[in-house]
Amino acid sequence: MRTGFSAPVGTQSVDFTVGLIEIYREEPCRVAPNAIWKTLARIPNGYSHIQSNDHIENLQFWTDTELLIYWDRTGKFNIQSDLNQFNTIILHDLYLEELDKQIYPHLDPYFRLYFPTTTKIESVNTDYQIELVQFDQEWEKILRILRASYPNWSFDRQRIEQWRSHPTYDPELWIWVIDPLTSEKIALGIAEYYTEIKEGSLEWIQVHPDHQKKGVGKIIVMSLVQKLLEKADIITVSGQADQPHLQQFYEDCGFTGNEIWWVARR
Question: Which pTM value belongs to this model?
């Protein structure tokens, strides 16, 4: 790992990865823009900075082309590199005003929410059936529902095979919703689980367009949350904040928080 460590004289050095995980446990949605394993996987190929006194005060992580993590306990902005050197910058809403909008005119907002793991939820009571995905036999059905949901995106078997290679892959968290009248697979839910810190994250919640606005999406979310509550200390979800109905949907499912992240590009 290429590391630039700085700490006040006389304080104890803290490994960046250890420090990042510690703070992420405290406030996951303000520390990172997505599930933490996605950042941890990139640390060996980037630069990191950590400042600590009695507590960790500041965390920064970047590559040659991207700023990926900036967190400060007091909310101050004091980056260790030239902010304008990057092609892509990911920043919490707290620091958006630090960006030069002429250099980074392309801004996309994303929300991050968490599900309180102390919440008691009732079993999902529905006429719809929930079944585990049998990938080898059903990968074409996965592609069909993804392509129907995202007609302008590119999906193929290789892409979804890559999701199964993630260190967070759990076959128990790939589920179908089955229409009881037709036995058709009408919705797909995929979550991931990172055992190192017991974090579950909702990744793909897709209802076929012909079956939307019937409560099927909530059935998927609550079915996955129920599975994750058995083992997770943290449950998160993120999505595009320029679609207010999407954030409201997850809040209606019990997720909470109001953290916004920005992806800024030249």
Answer: 0.91
